[in-house]
Amino acid sequence: MIKSAAAIAVLASSPLWCSDSKAEAARLLAEVKAATGGAQWDRIRTWHERGTFRAGDLTGAHEAWLDFRRLRAYTDDSGASAILGTIRDASGWNGKVSWSADQTGDVYIADSEEARSGAVGSTYLAAFAYLFPGRRRAEMEAKAPQTAEGRQFDIVQVSPRGSDPFELWIERTSHRVLRIVDLTGVDKITSLFGDFRQVAGVTVPFKRVDTGAKAAGPEQSWQIASVEIDVAPPAGIFDPPRPRFTDVSFPDGQESVTLDFRFIDDQIYLPVSLNGRAQDKFVFDIGSTDTIDARKARSLGLKSEIVGTGYGGGTGSAVQGLVKVDRLEIGGLSFDNQILDTTAIGSAPGDPEGMIGYEIARRTVVVIDYERHRITFMKPRAFRAPAHAVAVPFRFASRSEVLIRATVDGIRGEFEIDTGAANSLMINRPFAERNGLIARHHAVHEVTVSGIGGQAQTVLFRPDEFAIGSLRPPTPVGQIYLAESGGGAEEHVAGNIGNVILKRFTLTLDYAHRMLYFEPNAHFNEPDVCSEGWGGLKVSRADASGKLEVVDVEAGGPAAQAGILKGDSITAINDASLEKYTGEQINAFLNAVPGTTLRLTVQRGSVSREVELTTKPLI
Q1: Disulfide check for 365: which of 130, 244, 383, 591 has CB 3.0–4.6 Å away?
Q2: Which residue from 30, 59, 64 is spatially nearest to 49, judged by alpha carbons?
Q3: Are 476 and 526 in contact (CB under 8 A)?
Q4: What letter would DSSP give residue 474?
């Protein structure tokens, strides 16, 4: 399959290499077209294929329709599993709207820049549009030829208007495109092509295999069995269908349900029940579909089908599966026959064991009262917009991610609203690079963050200005991702806004009308201190007694100067046992105003000692 970078030799001295990269790219693509059908390509208007797909343990039927001239697409992959029942992933692009649908009948209409870019790019490739320069404008240039697995390849980089660049690897002998490599994104996907056959005078691959550069899960593959040319597509096939999802069940006679939630370490924990078994470590995360930690699923006897790879805040990835629960309940609300994602969420004792988000937010109106730690789910027909809140429209990225317009230093971008994130403002690397944020703020202090896919490095910074619409909360301490893979490498999403900012509001989510309402609460004007700890250390609760385990210490920081080491335990702050403090109070101590001196009782092995730690700013 794909070799490592060390196994690929660059042939820049090849006599076929041309200094005029655009002319060379045009010549190479003309050769591809001539070798695979020539003028026969120009006669194709529509394309209808059927076959099979495989995604890990899941297999099923594949069908696709393509409009070659107008660059529209429809794909439907449907399978059946003894564990999961029917699983479906359908998607389309009608030239204006990107959408997808699942087996419940729910339809996700994604109209963000990120979603449009992905739809444009995938349709461009599926319809072989690089052979027809007049159908969509694209920048093309030849790159240095390469050799891999004993074959010589000419490389053409293509950047379609409105989408992201990719490389076509053209095998020099046959002039066929044998692989396509994404150059941007969370994980740069490589598609490998084989089983070439002739259809209506053109030679095309009947097999495709996709894999990521850092994919922990299995590859995905498609095998075409039949192709029909110039058959009229069903009416409206490229347009989003009407949603017909199964509704959530409210208690009899109730239009809404209000619950108290636990707010621990800036995360919202809801009372969740799976198949009648109560769970207390599920986070409310509107940016996530319902998910359960893979080990937790096994402990509950839930059997999983492995289907692919999941990505998050880390630079790597995690194996992704699917499980089915007969009944999911949240404080009197209930769903039957729910499919949940499974992945590795965390390993520390206090880490969440699952996420509940999109599925319940999509079917209700949600009001999060951060000040009182209360959340309300109501039927959309019972909702009335809050009179004193600022209304902010949102768009969907891909499926469940909610994006709003916000500005950092006056620079506008689409930011994800992330109720599952215990941070303030995270900036994705591409947005930071395009706008020179690291240099502007002299951001050099590196910290490590964790998420699905492991860890990632960021640098701390504080913008000069941050605004959501007309709202300008105190400027947050933000972080900029440095990695070129993982969630922080998203090309068209500027970053995410987490609970450290959101907790300054009562936040209302009206998915039916794609509107968020921000109503400042009593904490709106409180200054934002560094979420990584002005004391230069990170801690997690080690056991039920509240003892804190030191999991990281900043080199040369206040904690290190006080002699605290990774692996130590903190048992008291200012002579008071930690049992007396909530998680928020402890966080407030460790993020105290610079210059504050804390008395900590630190235990190493069986020995305890008292130390003084004076906090200081990290940026």
Answers
A1: 383
A2: 64
A3: no
A4: S
Dihedral over Cα of 334, 283, 220, 114: its sign: positive
Contacts of 257 (CB under 8 A, 6+ apart): 250, 251, 331, 332, 333, 376, 377, 378
With tokens 């030849």, the residue in question is 142
Determine contact, residues 404/468, Cβ cutoff 8 Å: yes
Token pair listed for 358: 């999109």
Q: Is 559 left (phi over 0), alpha (psi -120 to 50) or beta?
A: alpha
For residue 74, give both structure tokens. 């429809």
Q: Which of 15, 42, 19 is nearest to 172 (CA)?
A: 15
Q: What is the DSSP pairing of strand 262-264 with strand 318-330?
A: unpaired
Pairwise CA distance, residues 456 & 484, whole Å? 10
* DSSP 8-class letter at 33: H
Beta bridge partner(s), residue 338: 325
What is the dihedral angle through the alpha carbons of 114, 120, 121, 122, rounded to the nearest 10 degrees? 110
Q: Give the dihedral of Cα atoms 190, 194, 197, 201; nearest 10 deg.
A: 40
CA gap 14, 7 in Å, rounded? 18
Full DSSP string of 536-566: SEEEEE-STT-PEEEEEE-TTSHHHHTT--T
Q: How far apart are alpha carbons 592 and 617 in whole angstroms?
A: 10
* Cα(421)–Cα(497) distance, integer angstroms: 8
> Over the range 4-21, which residues count as b (16 or more CB within 10 Å of their CB) and which as e?
eeeeeeebeeeeeeeeeb
CA–CA gap between residue 71 and residue 64 (Å, rounded): 13
Query: Quick one: CA dihedral 166, 171, 172, 176, positive or negative?
Result: negative
* Tens-place pLDDT, residues 24-78: 999 999 999 999 999 999 999 999 999 999 999 999 999 999 999 999 999 999 9
Question: Using only C-alpha atoms, what is the Rg of the chain?
Answer: 26
Helix, strand and coil content of the chain, in percent to the nearest 5, comes to: 15, 45, 40
Torsion of CA 376, 378, 382, 387, to 10 degrees: 30
Identify each DSSP E strand in 37-84 by its residue range: 46-55, 58-67, 72-81
Q: Whole-prediction pTM value?
A: 0.82
Q: Which amino acid is at 31?
A: E
Q: How many residues does the chain have?
A: 619
Give the amino acid at 587.
N
CA dihedral 237, 238, 244, 247 (to 10 degrees): 160
What ranges make up the beta strands (E) of 470-536? 478-481, 495-497, 505-510, 515-520
